[in-house]
Design a protein that fits this description.
With 394 residues, the chain is an alpha+beta fold. The protein has helices spanning 12-17, 73-88, 101-116, 120-130, 132-135, 145-157, 162-180, 207-218, 224-234, 238-242, 275-281, 303-314, 323-334, 339-345, 352-357, 363-382, 384-388, and strands at 7-8, 25-30, 36-41, 46-54, 59-68, 249-250, 255-258, 269-272.
Length: 394
């Protein structure tokens, strides 16, 4: 399919016809009004920007004008024209002048986080909840190491633990970006140690726990039920399954092909789903492009609350959705699957030398392994008596 042009005379019909990308954003530059750019993000949010040359730094930059359709095409053209006229007359010295920590976060989110990171909205939530309320109005020129330490102390006082490290990393990343872009001279957080020492998770559900969680999920409505079941059977990451599209599934070949843009490793991943997994997928109605969806327009979003509900209903505690990957990986070892094949199923990277010279894809071995795991899960969850008698395979 030919790549769509990024420059066009914008119309409301054209803008409404655009579809959100799976990652980052797409843009269209208006040929009618100089510098006017329309961006449509993977979240469905659409915004107007005007591109210009910052007279102070002599580099290209962009100013946010507003959201679409709240700001119409006509209003965006007027705002862009007025801004560029003021810029030429010296009335403004640049749209994105960073004066406060809040300004820094806005710029970082727009110019770096959205186009270049996997989960920009999650990072933005960290900033909005834990940084801006405390130091958002602080002038960037006045920001010092003590301010960062004070922020982390406040978060610690609120009872946050590992989340403090996420905030630390996000703010440090924004400051490093500002240094590299020439917006500030020094990152005062550089070298500041993490506040909380984290330990690697080692939770894996045993067969009895797996059965209890599965039964709790089976009692829920669709697509929550099937979402949990596919997490267990496929061993793939939460968001990869949550945003699964029908177009990624090849029933004839028995494959789920996850595009590189949707994987953590940024490489295409082929998953030969088990017959048990296909039975579950084929029970779902096709409401739109997404497999797990409620309204047919957006991917399933109930994952944030489902762990708490299933924990209460199953009486299995201390687990997360990601622990299903560890549970499955442990199960593959119990079933005698080789380490290499098991790691490939999880889309973990192979040794550089090995992957350079060994081009075999282990597709048949992966299919056999996932089929074994699917049948093991079927025995455990669909026949309680048989499940209770399942013997771990050495």
């Amino acid at each position: 399919m030919a790549k769509q042009p990024t420059k066009a005379r914008l119309t409301d019909q054209l803008l409404r016809s655009l579809k959100p990308p799976s990652k980052g954003f797409i843009w269209r530059t208006d040929t009618h009004t100089s510098g006017l750019t329309f961006r449509l993000y993977h979240t469905g949010r659409a915004r107007w920007f005007v591109r210009y040359t910052d007279p102070r730094r002599k580099v290209q930059d962009a100013k946010l004008l507003g959201d679409y359709p709240a700001m119409s095409l006509a209003d965006a053209r007027t705002a862009a024209t007025l801004f560029r006229a003021d810029l030429l007359q010296g009335k403004v010295s640049g749209a994105n002048k960073i004066e406060t920590i809040s300004d820094l976060i806005d710029n970082y989110h727009t110019c770096h986080s959205i186009p270049k990171t996997r989960k920009p909205e999650q990072t933005r939530v960290l900033f909005d909840q834990h940084v801006i309320p405390y130091i958002g109005k602080l002038r960037l020129d006045d920001f010092r190491r003590g301010d960062a330490i004070g922020l982390l102390d406040k978060l610690s006082g609120k009872g946050l633990t590992a989340q403090i490290n996420r905030v630390h990393a996000a703010l440090n990343g924004a400051l490093n970006w500002a240094v590299n872009e020439g917006r500030i001279e020094i990152n005062h957080m550089s070298g500041l140690r993490r506040r909380v020492k984290e330990t690697k998770r080692a939770r894996s559900l045993n067969d009895a726990e797996l059965r209890a969680v599965w039964e709790a999920a089976a009692a829920r409505s669709s697509p929550s039920r099937e979402f949990i079941q596919l997490l267990i059977l496929s061993m793939q990451r939460r968001d990869e399954i949550r945003a699964m599209r029908w177009a990624e599934l090849d029933r004839d070949a028995g494959l789920w092909i996850i595009p590189a843009s949707r994987t953590k490793a940024d490489r295409e991943h082929t998953v030969p789903l088990s017959s048990f997994a296909w039975e579950i997928l084929e029970s779902l109605p096709k409401l739109g492009p997404y497999v797990f969806t409620i309204d047919g327009k957006r991917p399933y979003a109930g994952h944030s609350k489902i762990v708490g509900a299933l924990t209460s209903e199953s009486a299995v505690t201390g687990w997360t959705l990601h622990d299903f990957r560890r549970t499955g990986r442990t199960g593959l070892s119990r079933l005698g699957v080789s380490v290499l094949v098991a790691e490939l199923i999880l889309n973990h990277a192979r040794d550089a030398m090995e992957s350079t010279y060994d081009m075999y894809d282990f597709a048949a071995e992966k299919r056999d392994a996932l089929e074994k795991w699917g049948e093991h899960v079927r025995r455990v969850v669909l026949n309680s008596e048989a499940g209770a008698r399942v013997v771990s395979i050495r």
